[in-house]
Structure formats: C-alpha cells, structure tokens
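Quick question: what would this complex look like in 3D?
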Amino acid sequence: MIIKKILLKRVLVSDNSCMILSMENKKATIKDVASHSLVSIKTVSRVINNEYGVSKITKSNLFIFIKALDYNPNKAAQGLRSKKSFLIGLVYDNPDKFYLSDIQSGVLETCAKNGFSVVLFPCNHKEKDLTEKLIEFAKRTNLDGLIPTISHTDMKELVKNLQLEIPLCVVSPGLLTSNPLCVSSDDFKATYSMTCHLIKQGHKEIGFIKGHKDHGAIESDLRKVGIRTKIDDRNIRPGTKHYDWEIKGVPIRLEIGPIFASNDAMAAGVMKAAHKAKINIPNDISLVGFDNSPTASQAWPSITTIAQPIKEMASSAAQILIDNISNKSEKKNINKTFDSDIVVRIDGQK
Amino acid sequence: MIIKKILLKRVLVSDNSCMILSMENKKATIKDVASHSLVSIKTVSRVINNEYGVSKITKSNLFIFIKALDYNPNKAAQGLRSKKSFLIGLVYDNPDKFYLSDIQSGVLETCAKNGFSVVLFPCNHKEKDLTEKLIEFAKRTNLDGLIPTISHTDMKELVKNLQLEIPLCVVSPGLLTSNPLCVSSDDFKATYSMTCHLIKQGHKEIGFIKGHKDHGAIESDLRKVGIRTKIDDRNIRPGTKHYDWEIKGVPIRLEIGPIFASNDAMAAGVMKAAHKAKINIPNDISLVGFDNSPTASQAWPSITTIAQPIKEMASSAAQILIDNISNKSEKKNINKTFDSDIVVRIDGQK
DNA sequence: TGATACAATGACAACGATATCTATTCTAAA
DNA sequence: TTTAGAATAGATATCGTTGTCATTGTATCA
C-alpha cells in the first residue's frame, strides 16, 4: 500500500514539477514545494503558517525543500485569501524629525521581523475630516492595523472613532490610558526627576516654557505637571522674572530662573535669545530641555535634557499591534509604560 | 432583442447583488460594480485600468457606480493576477534625519498619487553582501522597484548589480551619470556659487572641512571640487592656517580662513570649537555649511548654508521609476538634475 | 475485537482581480 | 443590402494561497 502511494506521487511529481529544475528563473510556489516534498499544498501551507497538525518529520523535511527551492510565500496570494494585507500604517503629524526617525526604525524592525510592511501616513492634525481621511486611507490601502503617534490635540476623539474601524496601538508621549492598546512614556516621572535635579543644584525658582501650542500641547502640559508637582512638593516658587524675546516675529515673554524648556528646540530658542541679551548660560541661568535631540548636544554649551526610549516604545507598539491582529495575545487591554532618562551635560559650566 | 438582454441582466443583478445594499459593511468588489452597472467585470476592469475599448458613456456610467459603491480595487488580487506588488523600496543608510525626512515625503507623495506604497529599507552600506541582501529583500517583499539614496561608497558596483534584478531610480547627491534612471543635485554648481559668495565678501583664503569619511564621502569630494574650481579660477588660496579641536575625543586639525563645512553638522562642530577657543563667528572668521538642516538655523549665529531641493528630487525619482515600471515612458535613460540654492543668514554680523 | 478519539494529511472551493480569447454591435464602404 | 473591420463587451481560465471539510492512519479503551 505504502509503495503504491509513493509511486503514485512520483508520477504526480514528474507530471508537474520535474521541469522545475530547469525553470530556475521562475519563482517557486507552494505547489512546487508540495510536489517536491511529496505532500499536499495544504500541508506546506500549514508549515509556513506554523499551524498545528503536521508531524515533526514532515515539517523538517519540508523546511529542507523550502530552503532548497528558495521558496517565499506570495504575499498577494496570502493576502487575497486570508483577507490580510500585512501592512501597518504609521500615522504622524510633522513631529521632530529625530523623533520620527526613531519611531520609524522601531516600528520598521519589529514589523519586518513579523513579515509586515509599514506604510507611512503623514498628516496634519488640524485637517478637517482627518478621521474620515484616515479611515478612507486604511480601507484603500487595506491596512491590517494603525499606529498613531504624535501629535493630535484632539487625539482622544480621533482614536475612539478609528478604533471602531481598525486595530490600533497608540504611541503616546505622556500617559494616556483611554486606549485599549497603548504604549507611552512617563513624562511626569521624568520631569519630576529633572526638577529634583535642578533643585539639587540649589535653584529655588523654576521657569517653564511650553512648546508651540499647535505642537505637542498635550506633552507640554503633562511635562509641566511633573515640574509643578515637584515645585509644590518642595515649596519652590515657579519662575516669575521674565524678559522678552521673539521667535519668527512673535514676541514671547520668557520667565527666567533656571529654565525648563518643554523641548530641545525651545531650549535652543532660549539660548539664542540669551546670547542676544548677553546672558550667559549656564553661569547666569540654568537651562534644561526635553527630547535629547541632536540640537541639545550640538549646541554650545550642550543642553541637559531628557531622553525617552522612543525606538523601544515604537517597537513595542508594533509588536502589541501585530500580536493583536494575529490573535496571538488574548489580552484586550495592554498599556505599556516606559521610563525616560535624564541626560546631564555640563560642558559649559564654570 | 435589447429588451431581452436587459431583462436577462436584471435577473443576474437580483441573483448576485441586490442584497449589496443591505450588506453595507462588506467591501464592494469589481463584481458588485459590474452587476450594478449591468456590464461585465472585464469592462469595469478596463475602466479602472484606463484601458482602451470602453465607450465614454459606459465609462462615465461606471464611475458613478464605482463612487456610489465606494469601490476600491483589491490590491492583493490585482497584484496576484498582474504579478505586481505596487510596492517600491526606499533604500537608505543612516543619512541626516532631515535629509531622510524630505526624501521620504517626496517619494511618499508621488507613490501615493500613483497607487503605490513605500517600503523602507534602512541598511549599512558597509555591510557584507549588501547587494545580495537587497536582492533578497526585493524578492521577498516582491517589490516593483527600488530607490537607492545615500550613501553607498561603492554604489556604482551595487547599482550595476541591482539593476539586473529590479528597476531602479537612484537619488544621488552630486552628479552620477552611470545609471539609466537617476535624479541628482548639482553640488558642483552649488559649492561654486557659495565660494563666489565668500569671495564677494572679500575673503582670499578658504578652508574646507570634509564630513566623516564613512558618511557622504562622495558628496564631500564633489562639494570640494566645486570650491576648488572656483578657487583655482580666481587665484584664491585654499586655507592653510589651522587650529586643533576634537570631536568625540578624536583630534582634528582645522584649517581656518573663512570655513566651508561640507555639511551643517560639521559647521556646528566648528562653531562649538570656536566658542571654546574664544573665536567669534562671524566676526573673526566666516563659516558656511551645507544641507540647510535645522541645526543651521537654530545655531547662534545661524549659519549660511546650501539647500538642495531634496523633496522635489525624491518625488521626481519616484515618478520616473513608476513610469518606467508601468511602461508609460519609452525612454530608457533619464538623468534629471536639480539646482541647489544658497541660504544666506546674517544675524550674527556686526 | 471493534469502537473511539485524535493526530496527520489531503481534495477542492474560494479570495478578487486580470488575461485571453470570443462574440456582438456599429459604422462605412462596396 | 451586404460586409469588412473597428469598437465594444463578455465568458472563462488563472494567479498562489488559505479555509472548509473529508479522509486516513494509529493508539487507546472497553
């Protein structure tokens, strides 16, 4: 009986695929692997999808043929049949390029590891009908999931509506707890420690500069809370002195003391203003930033700042999302928080 | 006869798709559009692919149904049948993040316009077997085309081998003429004009700083040629004075005069060194950079620099590649060159 | 021994589009 | 009229996978 079966199969092989050795330029399909390994295409499918119900022997045997034939599953066919696209959308709105770059590489690496590709969707958070546009984009591109990042002032509403249409995992600066799947950094803890750092240096008064109201308003606020709490905690006064400067023609009243800027770009702006006003940093006033962007290290003097583990966060978000899409995780609510680090730079000190 | 036909079709409609109005949550397929519009699916296919052989009336009628049913062709099915993936790979090796960001958005916009998605492939140009890895990546992801950007020192060899496997359009700083499809910026012209700018300010001696040898060596060299030519042209000496500074612990001998840095990051480094050495910029020495990165505008004083139309270049490259893939252009060799602009900043001058 | 359960495997349809080939309709010239 | 040929439309196979359901083989139990 067994012999008969094998013979039967060998005939099949010679019918369909003995020519394959001479068709070297054509890509191997699941059919080729199946006929060479003398199993059905379904069994091959089971192996490449790591499904249950294939014996160890068959499996290891198949892996040999898969390798030998240089077989790669056709994504289009897989997608067509299984209604997946293996595409994940990364949504962002003009963030700091370095931030974006880290986010991207984190998402990218994880997606690649899992056989997914990343489609980028830059957009303006102030755009009308952004929710509709995002949904339309997700549908048109047939995305399996979406990773929204900064910065959408009205993100809560947006995220809520998007969730109804497509799986999401949000990468959020500061703490956001309203989303089922979410990765965030603990800005509160970070600004709190930074404030401690300033207080340890003997400062009794701390100024804070918010970023532009259209960008990262949420983060700024959360960051401020961290300082404020520490300030209240220790009976330190918030900064009250000020001088005036401007950025792109817009006058800004700058509270001084030691200054805590809500991001490094703002810190660089303060430095520029200080240079003009002949105020020496760090000897006349202290200045710290947030983000650990290259600006902070390239400036003179270089700026003490806070570094978020952005890439790790992004990578984690992608993994959570993919697990969710693939039903590998049963949890419906995952909220992962990462801690940030203070990067102390002292090259300008007396 | 005509009546008979229509009746027949109406029956078909009620068989297959009158329910569609109540199946609102399901995506419309080409079949739905066909049955609603009383034409064959092939005709719908002709319309969405802008093929020859459909009357204007049928066409405009179809568009109405396509819109009404919110029909979007299924990329997986299209790809499976037509052996296309509608994916374009963007290859880059750790460039300046701002450069990357511009490249990306240019490629992205154009691809989106043409119904293509972008897959990112960050890589290390020094990696062994990079060519093989790229080919493997292109095959595995089933890419339709590839856009290699900076920076691959041995790019010529790489590009030559890649071309045999997959359509390419190279985005190159400086002039590269060896590739069939190529978009480049004229760095020579730009550095030449910048040198003219410095000479016009009365300088007789010009120093040049190359970037790190692993990054953008090609660009640096090409940029240098631009200066050098102008220098020779006008009997200006290259810089000979110097002082020593260091970057990340590595001592660097800095030629001074006015200084032309091969990129803005290098210019920022020079400024830092100058600050330490109590040399005033721009009053003691002039300093210009290259790239127009935010560093150049955020620094104090802000740095005069050269801006390449990066995004336009990237966008153009994507379009050329897509046209080539789609056989829309018959030209086999396209080499498009863009001019760069000088961005003069003077806020630090006496 | 026969019934039963379960692991391993296979046959075949289906996913949603395009390609190929064929059929019909329309127009203009014989 | 007739008819050639262009314009238009349709029927059906096909792309490479996975989903569904059926079948086989083997170990366990009563």
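Answer marked as accepted. Confidence is low (pLDDT under 50) at residues 1-24, 213-220, 235-243 of chain B.
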